[in-house]
Automatic annotation (TrEMBL):
Enzyme class, first EC level, given as a word: lyase
Organism domain of life: Eukaryota
The organism of origin for this protein: Carica papaya (Papaya)
Protein name from the UniProt record: 1-aminocyclopropane-1-carboxylate synthase
Molecular functions per Gene Ontology: 1-aminocyclopropane-1-carboxylate synthase activity; pyridoxal phosphate binding; transaminase activity
EC number: 4.4.1.14
CDD domains recorded: AAT_like
Reactions it catalyzes: S-adenosyl-L-methionine = 1-aminocyclopropane-1-carboxylate + S-methyl-5'-thioadenosine + H(+)
Family: Belongs to the class-I pyridoxal-phosphate-dependent aminotransferase family.
Pathway of action: Alkene biosynthesis; ethylene biosynthesis via S-adenosyl-L-methionine; ethylene from S-adenosyl-L-methionine: step 1/2
Length: 402
């Protein structure tokens, strides 16, 4: 939090846009902020070792300085060819090579924030809407709405069925938009889920493809946590679904957002992509990408790292292993004190159930409990209401910090 420019004892006020209440808290640097950071830090030692063994991968070292001139001058705005090829190959490996990706369909973006905004600009006009199943990443309100004028319409998902997306709920949300004369342009899903740490099943993904095709709306799949799945069931990418012969769909409606911020732990590098099966979207996104490019220096380093098959294979395996160990340790310790979590097998966090600790089942009571956790227990967790959860008492807590 101090890196966000907060002063000691600064009072922060936040007004929840969905549940219409305001709460405040006082910033305290002694609070353990690690439980708020959704950053993969468990494998930084592997990155460090690779950099020491491959100093030529950086143009800022004596070994790599010879490439400085070629990298520092203007480059193709579509991205270095070796970078796009390396990212495409990495995406395939993360998905256990059950799907392939065309480097020419990769459009760079300076982080997933820019990638989401880019796809929103490409697909929708101001006043149009995307269906989004909550609880969902709070940043979507910024990424997809602030500058685009696009609306987000929630699809009812409840804890009683582990927040699974149902066609009935999708139909209801779609009809709600129609009755309000709002044009629905797409469905946005996050798989694996932030904040739930769960995956969407293969059957459900197939049903979502069928639904969006029937409505002739786009399906945008945020898959930035694809490499964080550490136990069964395995992750299924939307790319796998549409490559199956039995699935009949219009590929022009399918788009993927991917990033190295979570799977590799590189949020500071601002490396994300839009991958679209729609030629017109690829063309439009490439033009828009000029406003949020990835630096050539970063592309050069990432291309070198991801081209190292031995390193990538080791990193993926070790990352999953360490996440599994940390998740098991964390959830078992919570269970020992009577705190349950939603069953999960992915992500850098768990969805913690503290409903029984609320004085009353309201979001105001959730904020009271949250302030106790922050100010008295010195643990920085995220309240479910910030993720637009419809039920008070759930909290996201991260476990992947060093």
């Amino acid at each position: 939090p101090d890196q966000m420019g907060l002063a000691e004892n600064q009072v922060i006020t936040y007004r929840n846009p969905i549940h219409t209440y305001t709460y405040t808290y006082t910033f305290n640097s002694k609070v353990d902020s690690h439980l708020l950071i959704w950053l993969m830090q468990l494998c930084f030692n592997l990155i460090h070792e690779w950099l020491l063994k491959n100093p030529e991968a950086s143009i800022c070292t004596a070994q790599g300085a010879a490439e400085f001139r070629d990298i520092a001058i203007f480059q193709d705005y579509h991205g270095l060819a070796e970078f796009r090829e390396a990212v495409a190959k990495f995406m395939g490996k993360v998905r256990r090579n059950r799907a392939s990706f065309d480097p020419d369909r990769i459009v760079m973006s300076g982080g997933a924030t820019g990638a989401h905004e880019m796809i929103a600009f490409c697909l929708a006009d101001p006043g149009d809407a995307f269906l989004v199943p909550p609880p969902y990443y709070p940043g979507f309100d910024r990424d997809l709405r602030w500058r685009t004028g696009v609306k987000l319409i929630p699809v009812v998902c409840e804890s009683s069925n582990d927040y699974q997306i149902t066609i009935e709920a999708l139909e209801a949300a779609y009809e709600t938009a129609q009755e309000a004369d709002i044009k629905v342009k797409g469905l946005l899903i996050t798989n694996p889920s932030n904040p739930l740490g769960t995956i969407i099943t293969k059957d459900t993904l197939g049903a979502l493809v069928t639904f969006t095709n029937h409505k002739n709306i786009h399906l945008v799949c945020d898959e930035i946590y694809a490499a964080t799945v550490f136990s069964q069931p395995e992750f299924t990418s939307i790319a796998e679904i549409i490559e199956e012969d039995k699935i009949c769909c219009n590929r022009d409606l399918i788009h993927i957002i991917y990033s190295l911020s979570k799977d590799m732990g590189f949020p500071g590098f601002r490396v994300a992509i839009v991958y679209s099966y729609n030629d017109a979207v690829v063309s439009c996104a490439r033009k828009m990408s000029s406003f949020g490019l990835v630096s050539s220096q970063t592309q050069y380093l990432i291309a070198s790292m991801l081209a190292d098959d031995e390193f990538v294979d080791k990193f993926i395996v070790e990352s999953r292993k360490r996440l599994a160990m940390r998740h098991s340790f964390f959830t078992q310790r919570l269970a020992q004190v009577g705190i349950n979590c939603l069953k999960s097998n992915a992500g850098l966090f768990v969805w913690m159930d503290l409903r029984r600790l609320l004085k009353e089942q309201t979001f105001e009571a959730e904020m009271v409990l949250w302030r106790v956790i922050i100010n008295e227990m010195k643990l920085n967790v995220s309240p479910g209401s910030s993720f637009h959860c419809s039920e008070p008492g759930w909290f996201r807590v991260c476990f992947a910090a060093e």
